[in-house]
Amino acid sequence: MTIRTTARAAALALALAAISGGAVLAKNPMVGGAPMLPTKSIVENAVNSRDHTTLVAAVKAAGLVDTLAGPGPFTVFAPTNAAFAKLPPGTVDSLVQPQNKPTLTKVLTYHVVPGTYTGRDLMALVRKGGGQAELRTVQGGTLAVMQKGKALYVADEKGDTAKVTIGDVMQSNGVIHVINTVMMP
């Protein structure tokens, strides 16, 4: 299976998972040209998003499909294909190699926070934190969340920031917030 095919399959799995979110909204946003169904899991929804094929492939390569299809709840900051493309050339191809599975797992789980944090929840935490809130990731590191105008941003421990481009994509097992940069632990 090629990386491109694997990426598409992984994106489909993530899209499907995202669709099956827990809370039911009047209307979930479309992601990557696909409807996200709040009755489906993060993985079930993600596999349908054309914008998340690289993420889905990476989730498969890391062996995280069952985890992200599980009960959760999870808040996933989901980088787009364009976010992965901003990494240095060869980074993604290297990360999905079997010998790099531990590193790939660290990168992916750095984008996952236990619990369900909607945009409203994140903004409340930011206000309570005096302009910034820290979230502990499944990987064990922290992500900082901040608000600039009406937009939410996430920063990794190195100071790189990602904008939440599509928020509150409710799933049966949590919520996805689409981001435009890959966060690195």
TrEMBL record:
Signal peptide from the UniProt entry: 1-26
Keywords noted in UniProt: Signal
UniProt KW Signal keyword: yes
InterPro entries cross-referenced by the UniProt entry: Adhesion/Biosynth-related (IPR050904), FAS1_dom_sf (IPR036378), FAS1_domain (IPR000782)
Domain FAS1: 39-183
The keyword rRNA-binding belongs to this UniProt entry's keyword annotation: no
Gene3D superfamilies to which the protein is assigned, alphabetical: FAS1 domain
Record PANTHER family: FI19380P1, PERIOSTIN-RELATED
The protein's name in its UniProt record: FAS1 domain-containing protein
Organism: Methylobacterium crusticola
